Amino acid sequence: MLTTPSRTRASPSAARRTQAERTQQMRQKLIDGAIALLKQKRYAGFRIAEVADVADVSRGAQSHHFPFKDDLVIEALEAIYRRTTEKSLARIAECKAERSELLKALLKDSTEFFLGEDFYISLDLMMVGGDSELGLKVKFLARTYRLAAEQAWLDAFVKVGCDPDGAEDIVLLTFSIARGMSIRKLMSGETRRFTRLMKLWSGLAEELLTG
Fold this sequence. Notes:
211 residues, mainly alpha, Arc Repressor Mutant, subunit A, 2 domains, elongated
């Protein structure tokens, strides 16, 4: 007599994990689509209904996970900040205990962030948000992630023997120069002077570090 092999039934916990993974994947697709749209159209041109098309998901799925525009925008911004902060921390971790190497990493990190679309998205949202609920959430994320990255750079310089006040000068001036050139790029599109100015600042910063 032939017997039918018994089927192994998935445990409820395994099913829940699978559903949770599917949910997370769907949300991530929508967040990635929102980031792509914000890069193209900024907040003023952002339409939540378009996100489903960009993410290649149904509009029902989009409205289920993110029924409100600002909720999706905030999730997208946090994803940007999380990614850029993780990149900064990874660069710090890769540096040897040398001040010059750490300075080069700081300059590269600042250039990539402030002259890239990630910063322009955050700047746009901060400006349009103002003191509204959206604006307050944007500022909270900026403080949470960007100040954490700033502190990580400060701690790294102190760890290699820099004076805390000197380390703060180096980090804040580097960010300020990169941020200022970013605004210039936004106004005129011109970036040719940036490399020269950062090279000049690099030399001055080296002197400060060894002084």
